[in-house]
Amino acid sequence: MSKNIILSIALFLVVITAQAQTFRGLDKSPRDISYFPDNFAHDRKDGEKPLAKVSYSRPYANDREIFGELVPFGKVSRAGADEATEITFFTDAKLGGKAVKAGTYSLYTIPDKTEWTIILNKDLDFWGAYKYRESEDVLRVTVPVKSDSNEYAENFSIQFFSTGTKAADLMIGWANTVVAVPVTFK
Question: Rounded to 5 degrees, what angle do the CA atoms 123, 129, 130 make?
Answer without folding.
Answer: 100
